[in-house]
User: Fold these one by one.
Assistant:
Number 1:
Amino acid sequence: MTATELPSETSQENNVENNVMQLARQAALAAPALASTSVEKRNQTILQFAEILDRRRAEILEANGKDALNKDAAEFKSGRMAIDNSKIDTVIAGCKALVAMRDPLGAIDYAKELDKDLRLYRVTCPIGVIGIIFEARPDVLPQIAALALKSGNAILLKGGQEVEHTNKVLFACLQEALKLEGLPESSAALLASRSDVAALLKADQYVDLIIPRGSNSLVSYIQSNTKIPVLGHAEGICHVFVHHSADIEQAMAVAVDAKCDYPEACNTMETLLLDKALTEEKQLAILTALHKAGVELRLDSALMSLCNSGLSSKQSPDSQANSQTHSQTPAAISVAEEADWSREYGSLCLSAKIVDGVDEAIVHINQYGSGHTDAIICQDNQAWLNFFNGVKSAGVYHNASTRFADGFRYGFGAEVGISTSKLPPRGPVGLEGLVTYKYKIEGAGHKASDYHGAGAKSFRHTDIEKK
Amino acid sequence: MTATELPSETSQENNVENNVMQLARQAALAAPALASTSVEKRNQTILQFAEILDRRRAEILEANGKDALNKDAAEFKSGRMAIDNSKIDTVIAGCKALVAMRDPLGAIDYAKELDKDLRLYRVTCPIGVIGIIFEARPDVLPQIAALALKSGNAILLKGGQEVEHTNKVLFACLQEALKLEGLPESSAALLASRSDVAALLKADQYVDLIIPRGSNSLVSYIQSNTKIPVLGHAEGICHVFVHHSADIEQAMAVAVDAKCDYPEACNTMETLLLDKALTEEKQLAILTALHKAGVELRLDSALMSLCNSGLSSKQSPDSQANSQTHSQTPAAISVAEEADWSREYGSLCLSAKIVDGVDEAIVHINQYGSGHTDAIICQDNQAWLNFFNGVKSAGVYHNASTRFADGFRYGFGAEVGISTSKLPPRGPVGLEGLVTYKYKIEGAGHKASDYHGAGAKSFRHTDIEKK
């Protein structure tokens, strides 16, 4: 290749952009056909897809083996990049469960007769074209593909390059299912390279929603670099506030669960707020329970002095705290910095602070939280009411662990993500988050000019059957 | 003032920003108290507000008179800047109608028992702090303020500087009502200057939604300059597609209504699509009806030749079209440019084009439309179904004028705007658009760790009463 034949970096970028734009355009053109399919056809395609995944198992496992080459085996597994027969079984079972769910499309939640023979309906419909960007886990691909099929959406999939062979085979299974059932193959596309992501984020003319599934930094990058609406959350800074009326055993149990059940999860408690009106004994009991569970504590100065005096009456907090129950070095206790109040640790570490009652707890949570999920532990019903009304987050809990914030636990079946947006969809988002609505009017040649001016007709606005 | 005392431009900008940020922060701090109010208290405050407006009429009219000074009287009136007693009556009647509407807060549309004593509810709640930017019309201020009160939201209001005296008095009435009813006065603030808008758009830490009510350029500017979600639309490029199965009298009547009823409105037809399979006679009849109604036509080449031959059989289209029915110069007919397919005329001008059936109509609308409202005129039910499923817009109509896209006509009562977003809220947005929801969980010390691992408890996911 001579120098003049070498594409410049800019023209390479342009090629990528054109290629992704072309795929996005084709997906947008295929979307109306997908939106018009019956639920029977969509279910049949999902079942077909599940059968093909079952039939092509060996190929999937072989591709995953290829992806594992030259990678650290333990990391490949812990990073959830590995696929085995049991994961394929889970995906297939997920497809069947999705088929059993009711059709999310065509549901009517508002129906009025505006006037004789003029009827208005609000009807659920697909969003259109959804771009899904996921990192390592290849089993996300068939899960999301099945959700998109059920909801009648076209999809552009961008998976992790670490598992590109696996993703290619999984995507080939999807294409085969679409083809066999006569649905447009261009309604799903697989993007290959990292530069495809940047191009996808520019395709706001064709792409209606982006769902990033991955690290906070991936989500933040996407949110800051596209005009397309993004469903998801970058951070989960969840709080537990223990009111002075709390059942202290409950408070200890919930706090430990909220921090320790799965510290890497987004619905894990990152900051514990203790009511000033709690006795010092109770405050200390809660902190001790967490510390005994191996949680590193970053405390405001009041709690730090309490810990120093309280724990030192039994043992030195610096060197020996809980050494009788843990053979390993006890977790550290230190003074929190300002930045710790908005830190998502994602590990067995916790910020803790005294607040003056439910009002100060609300102010703290609304200022430093991420709008994900926050809990109050109390027996006082007025405190719970004030907390529920005052905290702005998508989930506000009473006497329960923040860890319940999850689509499956909420009863939504599959989950596409958790949204911390103020506008819907927010909180854990299931199939319902992949549909929107449009207003349908059926008339008989009705003109708006008949409804104003002299001799104007009146609107009836009568409720009618939602069908 | 010495040179050192003069604030630099930057420090002035900073002052504005700090001031607006301070007002936004105070509004956010007041929001929880507002969210906790009963519907009775909110209704009572709206009625109080209406009474104060009634009592302070003279003051409002005097301020409006001051705003009218040194302005062109006709322009002041046509720009809807003038307020008179009848407008105040309308505002007061609007307040009373709003009080009669049901409480938008606390409605539950999802309720499950997750397990014994663990209940999940999805509950409507205020959005939080809403920034409203409106141009000239001062009666928007009390309308929006009453809507915000009913929905429990804090508001930052920025009105047009042309009517700043009027706005100040109207806002003073609102403050008086809040004070009398014991609601936080900082839950509403009036921003004064144009530079306050830029500062408001940066206050994403405190402001949850921006609603711009004004020109397309205002809305576009706002959409491109803030991270805060914006409810509204910059453009209304609405289409009417006449299918070959259309009742031609209906098609003519609806097309004329959709273009001529109120050409400046966002729900006015901007492009007419005619089915290739319509006879030339019918195509010509529809164009002639529009032209006779005074509509300037910009046509694709096929329709242009049709007009030349068709109209020339009776008269010269260039100089004398319809001269027998109109004494004034007939509207122009010319060939459309590419840019005309995405033009919002806002006047008696129309683009028109031949498309090959419903599929090509869908592609055209999805490509050039703005997602506002589009109609098909047809008797064929399959064509209507395909059109409804295929067109991505917020409103898709059958045999009715696009002009029905309006909150009042839909039966929503007051309207805050029309949204062309793909995600909810979309279409005409009423009170419902000023609320969002959060998930409430009530437990009895429930821990997530009990629901996984060995001996895990199961979720029930039983439907329970929505209360």
Number 2:
Amino acid sequence: MKIRPKISRREFVGSTLSAAAMQSLYVQPFLRTKVEGSPSDPGWKDEGILFVDRSPHAKLRNVPVHAVTITEGFWGARRETNLKKSIPSMEKLLEANGRMNNYLRLRGKSDSQQSGPVYSDSDVYKWTEAVGFQLQSGDPPELRALAEKIIRGIVAVQEPNGYLNTYYVADRAKQRMTPETQRWGHELYNIGHMIQGAIAYYRATGDRTLLDAGIRFVDDYLLASFGPGTDKQPLFSGHPEIELALVELYRTTGDQRHLELAGYILQGDDRIKVPRHAYVYHFCGIPFTSRTHLEGHAVRAMYACCGATDYYMETGDQKYWKTLDVLWNDLVSSQMYVTGGVGARSDGEAFGDSYELPNFTAYGESCAAIGNMMWNWRMLAATGDAKYADVIERALYNGINSGMSLDGTLYCYRNPLSFDPAGGDQIRNPWYDTTCCPPNLERIFASLPGYLYSTSKDGLYLHLYENSQLDWHLEDGTGLKVEQKTSYPWDGAVEIGVTPAKSTEFTFYLRIPEWCNSAQVAVNGKSVSGVTPGQYLALRRRWSPRDAIHLKFGMTPQVIEANRRVVDDYGRVAVQRGPLVYCLEQLDQPQGISLYDVSLDLREDSSSAFHVEFDKDLLGGIVVLRHAGAWAEKTSSDGKLYRKYTPTAAKGRQVELKFIPYYAWANRAATPMQVWTPTFRA
Amino acid sequence: MKIRPKISRREFVGSTLSAAAMQSLYVQPFLRTKVEGSPSDPGWKDEGILFVDRSPHAKLRNVPVHAVTITEGFWGARRETNLKKSIPSMEKLLEANGRMNNYLRLRGKSDSQQSGPVYSDSDVYKWTEAVGFQLQSGDPPELRALAEKIIRGIVAVQEPNGYLNTYYVADRAKQRMTPETQRWGHELYNIGHMIQGAIAYYRATGDRTLLDAGIRFVDDYLLASFGPGTDKQPLFSGHPEIELALVELYRTTGDQRHLELAGYILQGDDRIKVPRHAYVYHFCGIPFTSRTHLEGHAVRAMYACCGATDYYMETGDQKYWKTLDVLWNDLVSSQMYVTGGVGARSDGEAFGDSYELPNFTAYGESCAAIGNMMWNWRMLAATGDAKYADVIERALYNGINSGMSLDGTLYCYRNPLSFDPAGGDQIRNPWYDTTCCPPNLERIFASLPGYLYSTSKDGLYLHLYENSQLDWHLEDGTGLKVEQKTSYPWDGAVEIGVTPAKSTEFTFYLRIPEWCNSAQVAVNGKSVSGVTPGQYLALRRRWSPRDAIHLKFGMTPQVIEANRRVVDDYGRVAVQRGPLVYCLEQLDQPQGISLYDVSLDLREDSSSAFHVEFDKDLLGGIVVLRHAGAWAEKTSSDGKLYRKYTPTAAKGRQVELKFIPYYAWANRAATPMQVWTPTFRA
């Protein structure tokens, strides 16, 4: 087992050090050698997305990003684009839009005015986090040099008392941490992202510069003046994020105060009287454990749930678990789009009522789907329950993946499930003044290798199928390599090579996705029974080098209907194949046909089969689905809003409908799109 | 023809008179004799809801409210409740909530603070208008005495310069008519309602007190300092209403400046740079004739359209007509609920995008449906085209009528088409702090007799069927009585007795509703051909006393489907019988059944007929409809948000569904309701 001392702040940060002096503390040279998973390696290198190795109530440990190599597969291509296009172009846009100047001007190195909204610093930090994860996977020196320069610029403007923010300066300094600013000013949100970015960068490089700045903010500024004591001012996080960052900081520093501060914020301080509309929208300010359903701003709610799950993993507080379980059931039973997106309403970027899941006006912010994935990743770490991995897969392949264009330079803020460009919306854009989503997508794709596996006391969990190599070890220290060969998600066959450093008995937990109708598993050619969709198949045996597992998931396209309470989906179905939700884009259908007028022909006597075909030239290579449909010729455009019902009106002419994966929509000419397609009414 | 001098302001208002002195000008004693329609009667008595007798571009003239007596029918009962319960109880609530004190305190007769939002005065004025219309129909002396006292209290606080408002006084006086206050302060909106109320009261009683105050505001305050001149300040109406009031004032005073001011406001003043979001929301500030679709705040848009139609009827400006036609087509082809309600979004109380007509979250404010009816009444006056009367009937019987409880004391602000009390909404309330809807409903029901008929150069138009007596005259002065005997809308038979003072050739235009499948018309027992739904049937002949028309509209319940672009209605149907849209309330269905799980069985091989039955004991006496349905047993409550589509899942168990008219919903215990019911999928 890997044993190493926790970082103690006292060891390397003198609270009176200047920012410049602090930089000189950066003594760890950048080492990007091939990591063998050896316990003798510096500890920071082997911490995963979450460092829960010592968390008493985490069942699973994260595997570090560097331990998994993703190549030549579905996510390999996406990650390549992320590294080559998205991260560099976003840095240029952050520059061009003054976000970097916000730091420079505080050192007199830029004449420009403060740029962007109060949360603009966070976008720089999320970009830094993306770079951090990317550096964990490899070594693009120019990216590191760029990030290092930016980090030096950030920490240089930290004030002697630890405060760091480029908005609440000069005339605005007097607004710092006032009740109004705590509510809307995103000071703690910014620092939360800074800490996350700092940790990712630290785990990549050992460079503590940004991390130290985060610790100084927390220790010297926050803990000194804010908190539960009568001599201290109360805290309201405003936009949850600091909570999860503080727990991860605690995992990194071992400083109990960081965990306690997270717990205090999650509890809310009853010295602040928070009106209902505020604790609903902000999803903080009352005890997290008093929550009974998801509501309010979706990203805030998801980040709060992340923080609360992190807190649970450290404390085992059952009140937290009970609440998390209630909220999670609310999510999957009444609040989540079939794409894994969350947040139905544009108004307040908020959760709607139960079953309020409009398609056309769906908000489904990219950040909220990411928050959903992050939360479920934590729930999975706590329990090892496959139902959380199912949500991760659904969100990742669909509602998150849709957020970035295939070329990696355009982003969705909203991810609607139905769209008509006639409404005037430009759905993908290179930049938003509130540009939270683009760097958030970048950090997720950068961190993706860390989501494929976990370890447990008794073995290894495989969560996501992807062409990849794992080079890590079991929790007892036994080296273990696992290779996946697959064309997943286009094909349901996965060949898994298992190579422990020596023959060892352990359990290989293979996730059997809940969506699959049929799954065949064979170990060394011998079929395995007890395969159950929606569960991990526990293969307990003595594993030896060159053992092989063959998986075969049935990939027959599936037709899905929603609960009848989802009014927008009634009479409609969604099509899913493997983990991918499909959609119709009008430009793929025969000319002259409007999506408003088509139905999927699901009559039993019709040819109900999908035609499945991989088209390597379309949208980067996708499996296209074709199915018989009906075209109710121009009934939507005859100007009639209401008409007498005629049972045959919808039948119309026969037409073949062509479906593409939802994530790939809006990558060609602007055209109507829909996920939920009417079914044929006989 | 009725010929009388227009009121000239100069004749009876001295601009330097005090409010008290103005009251002494009230010299016309209240006369409530039986009006025979004689041209020698005081002109004010014979003006209809709109006085368009001299409007060059009005095809139809209004018939005064007093000329039509509604008794013992559908609307007779509603109007009785309005008079006995609604108007008196609303007056008490206006008192109890300080709206009357707002006037008293300005005279030192109340110590209370200003109460209510900036538009609170308008609620008093709308109540006054309701009383005015009610007084036009009869003579409840105690109601007149009460109104007179209130009116005296209002005019007593008018300032010497004509300004009148109970909110922008004292410290707030400096905010009067600032750009910000023009946008949000409702000063002109309040005065618009005051003028409407004043005119209704004047037409009932000849009492010019309130009317004079309105004229003073316009002449002495507005025209003196605001308008297009370089020496004047620009105007922005903020909440359209003043436009229609000014045109009606012009019709009453003959003062061309009142019409010109309306035109100026409808045009917008380009000295005010109105940002897009503002001219969308406020529906003013840019030339009305530049509008291409309905958008923004629905009541604002509807009142603006009313004012623009009024302006068109006076000017004949074809640019106005073109715009009105475009907007009207937008309304009926993509923006109107099947109930005649308008305004899809709670957010901004606004029109949605085309076809955005959600049922559960429908706003459908009572005031907006009223605005819709008022607008269509003007379009009908301009053209005599039955399509406008069809919209009036749809809105009146459904989306407006639903706004008041059957007992006349509770009101809907929102009129959703689907409801679940589990959401916590209290849909009917006696009072709203923004209490625009209750007195608006009261004034409409009070004015209803004025909507049944119009005259044209060549005869008489019958718009609405209702047990009633008309006692009026043709435009050539020939006396004419028309009696309708009917149980409409419960029954499709209408017996019409036509009694001209002498045998006269004229055209009797009978509206054949667009909803009817079949209509038989006979004059003196002889069947008439050429009956076309959605048109007026023109019966040109020499009419003599004791002539009789027999109408028989087919009342078979109809199943309606929406345009496929209305996502919320897809796979669902609405049920309509006659002009009444029906709904399901859960408490009428077999116990244990959730509305979420029922479907209407419309298979051709099923018994597709409705069972139609009048239940005199239910909800004041209604026709109940029963139809075979299916119950997909508890599929909505099994906790599953998405499931694999199975074509038989929705079939379920057979069940009988019971429909009641939509207007009568929410008059018993709180229970789920829906207008659009899923159809059975075979």
